[in-house]
Specification:
27% of the residues lie in helices and 32% in strands. It is built from seven helices and eight strands, in the order E-H-E-H-H-E-H-H-E-H-E-H-E-E-E. Strands 2-3-4-5-7 form a five-stranded mixed β-barrel. It is globular and about 40 Å long.
């Protein structure tokens, strides 16, 4: 049975997730990958995120670009993506969604920051059909790699890292 999650979620909900939990994701989520996530991390570091109108608290970052062809996960273990997970989680992101194995150190960071990592198969047609709305939130000049906010319904995924444990070990 899948657990239904409506984003944003609270810390308690994130802490209750366990590896191999099957989840259905709904609500507002952010989309970003290697071009934009370091920019968002820089905004968190310099404090400008507060004035941007971007509220990460309880949020989800889907590691993807939003293109006319649809959405599908990119590899989350790219330095520019995995390297931002600590600061994004500290700033309130409770779930990172993508594909691929992450380092053990990242699993420990996610545990400490009350965040989890979930994976989904690269099924662009399925995911695109479950997007209710989309809008560009920041860095529109990056085109499909800008920061987007999607409203989604029943995105299927599996928790891959939670509580310091990983399905990849």
């Amino acid at each position: 049975m899948e657990k239904k999650l409506v984003f944003p979620i609270d810390i308690k909900t994130a802490d209750e997730l366990r590896i191999r939990d099957r989840i259905l994701i709904s609500g507002r989520i952010f989309c970003g990958r290697d071009a934009v996530l370091p920019k968002i991390a820089a905004m968190i570091n310099d404090g400008s995120i507060k004035d941007s109108g971007i509220d990460l608290e309880g949020g989800l970052i889907f590691h993807t670009a939003v293109s006319p062809a649809g959405v599908g996960p990119t590899s989350s273990n790219k330095v520019e993506i995995e390297g931002t997970m600590e600061i994004l989680s500290h700033a309130g992101i409770r779930m990172h969604l993508g594909k691929g194995a992450l380092r053990k150190e990242t699993a420990e960071i996610l545990k400490r920051e009350h965040a989890v990592y979930a994976v989904l198969p690269p099924v662009t047609a399925l995911l695109t059909s479950r997007v209710i709305s989309k809008r560009t939130v920041a860095f529109a000049e990056l085109g499909m790699e800008a920061l987007y906010e999607l409203e989604v319904h029943d995105y299927p995924a599996v928790v891959a890292i939670a509580g310091g444990e990983s399905i990849y070990e």
